[in-house]
Amino acid sequence: MKDRLDRLKSIITKNNLDAIVISSVPNIIYLTGYSGFSYFEREAFLIITSRENFLLTDGRYSEAVSKVPGFNLLEISNSNSLDDVLKILSKKIKRIGLEEDDVTLSEGKRFKKYFKLHPAKDLVSLRTVKSEDEIKKIKIACRIGDETFSFILGKIKQGISEKEVAHQVEMFVKEKGADLSFPSIVAFGKNSSIPHYQTGNEKLRINNMVLLDFGVRVDNYCSDMTRTIFFGKADKKIKEIYNTVSTSQQLTIKQLNNLLIDKKTFEASFIDSIARNHIVKQGFPTIPHSLGHGVGIEVHEPPRLSPRSNEILKNGMVFSIEPGIYLPNIGGVRIEDLVFIRDNKIELLTHSPKDLIEI
């Protein structure tokens, strides 16, 4: 954690600030290792200066966070309100940076009473390059994801519902001592043409597409994978769709790897275009979503591989590559793997089979 705090302190210096206020739960986890705060309500702030680190929370969490090394606990209570704490801190802190994409308008106004506010730039870059410890956790999550997919193949049968499959995914993951990184997407038949379909009660029938998109969380770090299988005997059209998606992903990974080996500098949008252009050239609609996204503490984080992304892909980044074709009244195919850039080469983190599986 010290290395992470040191890098944050360099951002404080670079932006001529006295402190940065960390409010988003993923960044709090990243800097403290503590993951007990809710994503749905504000339960804590970190205030980081060049010399001191403060953790502001209430009595429900005081005992747990008192063990977080390197932080001074400032407990918020009825007799010691957030305003009281901010007023005291304002005696030695004047210019602060805020996570402008996370702080609410009312919170911003509150901080403005005591400090000069500035956007905290470059925070997004803190988590994009992963350490070996982070990679180790992501790899474990990916391994459990692969094991889950193998397990689920044995549960696919006529009459089972989407929700029943999703339940089986969750139970298997939890039996492995992990958690889901997001609610699983299980889409049968025509439902698979909806990229972010909400898993429902559709029952599996013969000659149905089965799209499975799920992730695992291990020690705060996520995996994300998608596989599409066919229940029955796939016809020529289905095979054409599947092979187009599969080839687009293979081409993308190959060209990305070649660019890295040659030490070329390129934007994420270029990688997105490789898969997108291949799919369109085969006569199918363009991908209706980004080709990929970073994965770490959050299942969606930078870098983003989209047509407009100017982010530079580099060593230490983990991200998904997930091309897809979605045809209403027919179904959809998506194949998603996580990759890691190490020593200017691509390392696949997802190892489940990608040939079309017919059950």
Descriptive account of the structure:
There is one protein chain. With 359 residues, this protein is α+β, with helices and mostly antiparallel strands. The chain has 9 helices and 19 strands. It has helices at residues 2-14, 25-32, 62-65, 82-89, 105-112, 132-153, 162-175, 236-261, 268-281; strands spanning 19-22, 44-49, 53-58, 72-76, 95-98, 116-119, 179-180, 185-188, 208-214, 216-218, 221-222, 225-231, 292-294, 301-305, 318-321, 324-327, 331-334, 337-342, 345-348. A 6-stranded mixed sheet has the order 4-3-2-1-5-6. It has a 3-stranded antiparallel sheet with strand order 7-10-11. The longest helix is centred in the C-terminal third of the chain and has 26 residues, at 236-261. The radius of gyration is 23 Å and the shape is globular.
* Rounded Rg: 23 Å
Uncertain stretches: none
Proportion in helices: 25-40%
Order of helices and strands: HEHEEHEHEHEHHEEEEEEHHEEEEEEE
How much of the polypeptide forms β-strand, as a percent range? 15-25%
DSSP E strands, number: 19
User: Structural class, from helix and strand content?
Assistant: alpha+beta
End-to-end distance: 47 Å
Quaternary structure classification: single chain
